[in-house]
Design a protein that fits this description.
By secondary structure, this protein is of the alpha/beta class. It has 15 helices and 11 strands. It has 2 domains: 211 residues, D-Maltodextrin-Binding Protein, domain 2 (3-Layer(aba) Sandwich); 96 residues, 3-Layer(aba) Sandwich (D-Maltodextrin-Binding Protein, domain 2), CATH 3.40.190. Strands 1, 2, 3, 4, 5 and 11 form a 6-stranded mixed β-sheet that branches.
């Protein structure tokens, strides 16, 4: 869940990557219109995804034939995060992509021409039963989110959806989030760092939240659910150019994606079973991991909440115009 922000190293990397992909796109190798038509009128599209639980519906949709019904063949391309996917979509390397909501809000504020297509993943809305949370050692003196003020807290990326939502729950609990010392660590490294005492707490998502609990760590806050019970954590998107020039393909993708989201939400066992096909997950963890919510409609109000938090925490300089970003 990487998110660029003004003046950061991540921003510079994003812009450099964007320039490079634009050069590569100009060197040929793809069709002029961005669609590759296969036999029987099938359109092949590349989709940038992250190998995490969040994107289980798109893999289920492919397996169930929902995209084939729309005349689409998906090539799912695994990437490390939004910092790679966003410029890839803008340059035409991918026709569609998945990213966390705050990444898209920040990228759009920097002038990148993005257009959201469908919902991606959302909070379950249940404190203590969500797919993301903040954990501490079993014997930690930290009891509530307010106690995180003045402590070292690990997140997967600085100035991200995970920091803004953590700041909110701390603020709501009466603490001062400006006193938190955030440390950037990859999700797999956060639980060991908390266990060893290298940091006082860590924000993790599944399957690392289940792994943390299995190792005896305590969850003291559900930063997504406590920010907004319907929090839209991630979205599928395309470029404004592609949305304009290939409106029919975008409509077909949206139709299949919405059907996939509903199927995943209605069939959690199938969603759980698809995970090993694209992630490396221990079978014992797979069996008990908390799945997110996959609504088939976008909750724009919760995106507005994230926009306000991004503005409050200085990730953006003005409140985003959601009418331009959302469908």
């Amino acid at each position: 869940m990487r998110v660029p922000f003004p003046g950061s190293t991540t921003t510079r990397v994003l812009l450099t990557a964007l320039a490079a992909t634009l050069v590569l796109a100009g060197c040929g190798g793809g069709s002029d219109d961005g669609d590759a038509s296969g036999s029987g009128g099938t359109t092949t599209v590349d989709v940038g995804v992250i190998p995490i639980l969040d994107v289980a519906p798109i893999y289920l949709g492919v397996k169930q034939g929902f995209f084939k019904e729309q005349g689409l063949e998906l090539k799912l391309q695994s990437a490390q995060g939004g910092a790679a996917i966003v410029p890839g979509v803008v340059s035409g390397q991918y026709e569609f992509g998945f990213s966390n909501t705050t990444s898209l809000l920040v990228a759009a504020s920097q002038g990148l021409p993005l257009k959201v297509v469908t919902e991606g993943v959302a909070s379950t809305g249940e404190k203590g039963k969500d797919f993301g949370g903040i954990v501490v050692a079993a014997d930690s003196p930290i009891k509530t989110a307010a106690d995180l003020a003045g402590k070292r807290v690990a997140v997967n990326t600085l100035k991200n959806i995970n920091t803004t939502t953590t700041n909110k729950v701390v603020r709501d609990a009466g603490g001062d989030p400006s006193k938190i010392a955030y440390t950037e660590l990859a999700f797999p490294d956060i639980v060991p760092a908390v266990t060893k005492g290298d940091v006082d707490a860590g924000q993790v998502v599944e399957p690392f939240l289940t792994i943390a609990k299995k190792q005896g760590l305590r969850e003291i806050a559900s930063n997504f659910a406590q920010t907004d019970p319907k929090l839209t954590v991630g979205l599928y998107f395309t470029s404004q150019k592609y949305a304009t020039e290939h409106a029919d393909t975008v409509r077909k993708f949206a139709t299949a994606m919405q059907k996939s989201l509903k199927y995943a939400n209605d069939n959690p066992d199938a969603a759980r079973a698809i995970l090993p096909s694209y992630t490396k997950i221990d079978p014992d963890v797979q069996a008990v991991v908390t799945l997110p919510s996959w609504p088939d409609t976008i909750d724009s109000a919760s995106i507005g909440v994230l926009g306000k938090l991004a503005l409050q925490d200085g990730l953006i300089t003005s409140e985003p115009d959601l009418t331009k970003l959302l469908p």
